[in-house]
Amino acid sequence: MFHVEHFQKIMIPKYDIIVVGAGHAGCEAAHASATMGAKVLLLTMNMNTIAQMSCNPAMGGVAKGQIIREIDALGGLSGIVTDHTMIQFRMLNRSKGPAMWSPRAQSDRQMFSEFWRLQLESNPNVDFWQDMVTGLLVEGKSIAGVKTSLGINLYSSSVILTSGTFLNGVIHIGEKRFGGGRAAERASTGITEDLVKLGFEAGRMKTGTPPRVDGRSLNYEVMEEQPGDEEPGKFSYLPSSRLTKQRACHITYTNAKTHEVLKTGFDKSPMFNGRIQGIGPRYCPSIEDKINRFSERDRHQLFVEPEGWKTIEVYVNGFSSSLPEDIQYQALRTVKGFENVKMFRPGYAIEYDYFPPVQLKTSLETHLIDNLYFAGQINGTTGYEEAACQGLMAGINATRKLNQKDPIILKRSEAYIGVLIDDLVNKGTEEPYRMFTSRAEFRLMLRQDNADDRLTQIGYDIGLASPERLKLVQLKKEKSKQLLGTLTKKVQPEEINTLLKEIGSAQIVEKAKLFDLLARPEISLQQLMPFLSDQKDEYTEDEILNTEIGVKYAPYFERELAQVAKMEKMEHVKLSQQLDYSTIKALSAEAREKLNKQQPLTLGQASRISGVSPADISILMIHLNSK
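Above: the chain's sequence. Below: its structure in C-alpha cell form.
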C-alpha cells in the first residue's frame, strides 16, 4: 500500500520555511522568504481564498498607506498588487501637512486575490498545500514543522504562523453562534492548544464586518458621491500605468429611526449579553457599539463601497454588526438610499485566539521556541496593512536566521513598520492594535512620499528589493539634489510679483532667491518651476514634491533628528540576553519580571517596555556602568 510516510518522502520534502495561512501576512512572508532564496511551503485551508480581503475592499488610509509604501520600498508586493487591482485612488489629508498625507485605494476584491496568487505562483521557490494545521512539531526548544488534519507531518527549519481570525474562531449573528474563521469557512483547531502546552499565554479578541448588499437596489441619487482623485496616484515606486477611469464611492447616514430599530435587537446582541468575551477594535466599533457609546449623536456616517469593476456587491462601511440578520435588514432600510435594499449576507462578529506579542523578540521570533515566528492578527493587530508588514518582516528575519545573519530590526525613526513592531513586543496590546500617525514620534520623517529613500537600500542589501528599484531611488535623490541647487537662482520683482499677487503672497522689492520664496507656506514648487524654464520638464512629480518638502520643513527635520540622536544613544547600549534582572534588587518587582520575560536587546528597548519606569532605567544604567 502507498502510505502517508511514502507520500511525505516523495511529494513533500523538508522545507526551509513553512508559512501557515495565506492571508496578507502569509502572502508577504512567503514572497519575502522565497525571493531571498528560501524554499517555502505556503499552507492554507483554502487555495481559493489566498490574500482574501475579508473585510473592506480597500488598502491604505491614514498611517496604513504609509505602511504599504514601506512594504513596497523594501520589495514587498502589497503595493504592486493594489496598483494592478484598484478601482479608485484618493490621497487623504491633503489639506494637512505632508506627514499626514495618506494614500488609500478601493480594490477589486476578486482581482486582488487572484493577482496575489499569480504573483506567488510565478515564484519557483514557493510550493502550496491545502490542509489545516492541527499542531506543531517541536524538538527540544526548536520548531521542527507542523501536523495537519490529513495526518501528515510537514518538516521545516522555520515556521511562520499567520493564522488571522481562524484560531478557534467563533462567528456571532444575534443569538446564533457557530465555529468559523471567516464566513463560510471553518475555524482552525489544535494550534492554540499546542502553544499553550508549550507555555505560551493566549487571549481572545473580536472583530466584525458589515452586511453586503445588492448595488442594484440602492438609490445613489440621494447619496453624496465620493469620487477618486482627478489625477490618481499609486502605491508602488516602480513604474506602472495609472488609473484612467475610476468607480465612485458614496456617503450616506444613519438616522434616529435607524437607531431605534437597532436598539430593538440589543437584548439579542452577543456584545451586550456577554456571549462575546473578546475585546473588539476601539477605533472601528460596530454600529450597535457606536449607538451605545455615542448616544448623543443622531446619525453616523456610512461609506457605500463597490467591491469591484463588474460585481454588483456593495460593502456598507461603518455598519459592522452582530445583531440578528432581520434587525440588520430592517435598520438598513431606514437609511437614505437604502429604502429598497436587498441584502446578500448579514454582518457578523468573530471571536478568535491571539497571543500577546510581548512573547516575541523584535524579529517576531518567539522567545520560547526557536525559529517559530508569529505575524498578523495572531499578534493582536487589526488591518490588512498591519498584518502584511509583519508577514514581510517575519519572512525576512526567518530567512536571515537560516543563513546565520542578524535580523533586520527597523527603528522607530526609520519606518512605521518599526513603530508597530516595537509597540507590540515592548508594550503589548489588550485590544486590536491599529496604526495611527500619532503613534510615530518622528512622523514628519516617516512620510508616504519618502519610504523609498528610507528603506529601498535596506531591501536591496538583503536581496529583496530589485536593482531596478535601487536605481530609481538613486536617480530620484540625485535629481532632487540637482533641483535644490537650481533654487539658488534669483528672480527680479517684475518677473515674480504678478504670481505673488495672484496667490496672496507678499510681493518683493528686490531680487530674491527661489529657495527663499519656496519657504513661504503659500507657495508651491510647481508654481516656481516656470522660472526654471530651461529645466522644468526634467523633473518628475515625486522629485519636485521631495524637494519642496525638504525646503519647507527643514527646521522641523533638524528638530526631529536631534530627538532621534538622543534616542539612538540608548539604542546603542546593548543588553546581554543572559542578564538575570532578578539579581538587580534595586529594580522594581514589575521591572524585574517584565525585563526577564522580554529580554530586551538594548537599553532603549527596555525603556519602552510597559511597567519599566525611568527610575528603573537609571538603576539599570548604574548596574551596567558598574560592570
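The chain has a mean pLDDT of 94.
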